[in-house]
TrEMBL record:
<keyword id="KW-0408">Iron</keyword>
<dbReference type="GO" id="GO:0046872">
    <property type="term" value="F:metal ion binding"/>
</dbReference>
<dbReference type="Pfam" id="PF13484">
    <property type="entry name" value="Fer4_16"/>
</dbReference>
<dbReference type="GO" id="GO:0051539">
    <property type="term" value="F:4 iron, 4 sulfur cluster binding"/>
</dbReference>
<feature type="domain" description="4Fe-4S ferredoxin-type">
    <location>
        <begin position="184"/>
        <end position="216"/>
    </location>
</feature>
<comment type="function">
    <text>Catalyzes the conversion of epoxyqueuosine (oQ) to queuosine (Q), which is a hypermodified base found in the wobble positions of tRNA(Asp), tRNA(Asn), tRNA(His) and tRNA(Tyr).</text>
</comment>
<dbReference type="InterPro" id="IPR017900">
    <property type="entry name" value="4Fe4S_Fe_S_CS"/>
</dbReference>
<feature type="active site" description="Proton donor">
    <location>
        <position position="142"/>
    </location>
</feature>
<feature type="binding site">
    <location>
        <position position="177"/>
    </location>
    <ligand>
        <name>cob(II)alamin</name>
    </ligand>
</feature>
<keyword id="KW-0004">4Fe-4S</keyword>
<keyword id="KW-0560">Oxidoreductase</keyword>
<keyword id="KW-0411">Iron-sulfur</keyword>
<dbReference type="GO" id="GO:0008616">
    <property type="term" value="P:tRNA queuosine(34) biosynthetic process"/>
</dbReference>
<feature type="binding site">
    <location>
        <position position="202"/>
    </location>
    <ligand>
        <name>[4Fe-4S] cluster 1</name>
    </ligand>
</feature>
<feature type="binding site">
    <location>
        <position position="252"/>
    </location>
    <ligand>
        <name>[4Fe-4S] cluster 2</name>
    </ligand>
</feature>
<feature type="binding site">
    <location>
        <position position="142"/>
    </location>
    <ligand>
        <name>cob(II)alamin</name>
    </ligand>
</feature>
<feature type="binding site">
    <location>
        <position position="222"/>
    </location>
    <ligand>
        <name>[4Fe-4S] cluster 2</name>
    </ligand>
</feature>
């Protein structure tokens, strides 16, 4: 029977490639080693306003509680880096809006979920046909209390970098992860060696020093967290460091030596939409809500909403080189803006020595 499961595991990896994944791994469900670190991270309050990190309790590190009868987890890796304007060029131009490279194309949740569904259905069909085995599954992509990086690491897709993201020796870290929880006793893959060594590039370059130690992130300081997950006023002490980053931050990946091996994604859905890789802050700020909804349709950016978008772009404009165009753009939105956006417009104008009466 072991040979049958071995053969099925090989087939699953082949099907994964057919459906567009760059790598498939298989892990067991033992995550007990993550419990103490995770609970201490929560206790320190490093999760900020991400209250969902707490409410699911032990289901995060006990997969069988999240999906009963789970004994294995199939992990999937999908490269996302698009053919886009050079990131450093955009970051150095204070008139431009920098958007994290993962969000320049179609919402990855939709893309990954569709591929995972195809793979799950293929396994279900073949397992039933060849083994007469009832295949139970549930798939996830950044959508539930799942220890994505730990599971990917256990299944040999890479190792956890000091910035807490997964790194693959041949592909860097520009990829998404997804999982299928299953009840089939498939052979598991071996964990790979950590190759970060003494390098601290990601820690050194972080604009807000959110990586407070190797493998330890204080999300409350992270620009990705502040511009996406944080829904209220952005703390004053981080506004200058945010620069022109209006959605996410890639600095820790941009300066990771392993990302010299990163490859352009073959996935059409991750191609740049609406010129978001090279767009002016003023243009972003002057969108009406209808234009924002239209331009961000099908994008991961849509979920932060119009107000949060304006809040982020206002900070970018406050950090830009002073010009009449920027000051006038900020002033034009003030009267109609929400209290949250008004506060950030006021701050931005003050950076250009203009004060609302």
């Amino acid at each position: 029977m072991t040979e049958i499961w071995d053969q099925l595991a090989l087939q699953i990896k082949g099907w994964g490639r057919e459906f567009g994944f760059d790598q498939i791994g298989i892990a067991d469900i033992d995550l007990n080693h993550t419990k103490d670190h995770y609970l201490e991270w929560i206790k320190q309050g490093f999760h900020g306003e991400m209250h969902y990190m707490v409410k699911h309790g032990s289901r995060r590190y006990k997969p069988e509680e999240l999906v009963p009868h789970t004994i294995r987890i199939i992990t999937a890796r999908l490269n996302y880096f698009p053919h886009s304007q050079n990131s450093e060029t955009i970051l150095q131009d204070s008139q431009k809006a920098f958007i994290s490279r993962y969000a320049l194309g179609r919402d990855y949740h939709k893309v990954m979920r569709a591929k995972l569904k195809k793979l799950s259905e293929k396994i279900q069909k073949e397992a039933h046909k060849a083994l007469d085995h009832a295949f139970q599954f549930r798939l996830f992509t950044d959508s539930a209390p799942v220890m994505e990086v730990e599971l990917a690491e256990k299944s040999g897709l890479g190792w956890r970098g000091k910035h807490t993201l997964l790194i693959n020796k041949e592909h860097g870290s520009w990829f998404f992860l997804g999982e299928i929880y299953i009840n089939l006793p498939l052979p598991i893959d071996k964990k790979v060696e950590n190759h970060c060594g003494t390098c601290t590039s990601c820690m050194d370059v972080c604009p807000t020093k959110a990586i407070i130690g190797p493998y330890k992130l204080d999300a409350r300081k992270c620009i990705s967290y502040l511009t996406i997950e944080h829904k209220s006023s952005i703390p004053m002490e981080y506004r200058k460091q945010i620069g022109n980053r209006v959605y996410g931050c890639d600095d820790c990946q941009l300066y990771c030596p392993w990302n010299k091996f990163g490859q352009i994604s073959k996935e059409d859905d991750f191609k740049v939409r609406h010129g978001l890789d090279d767009i002016e802050l003023v243009e972003c700020f002057l969108w009406t809500e209808a234009e924002f909804l239209e331009n961000m349709e099908g994008s991961a950016i849509l979920r932060i909403g119009y107000d949060q978008w304006l809040r982020n772009v206002a900070i970018g404009l406050g950090n830009a080189k002073t010009s009449e165009i920027i000051v006038n753009a900020l002033k034009s939105k003030y009267q109609e803006a929400s209290a949250l956006v008004k506060e950030h417009i006021t701050w931005a104008l003050a950076q250009h020595n203009f004060h609302i009466n």
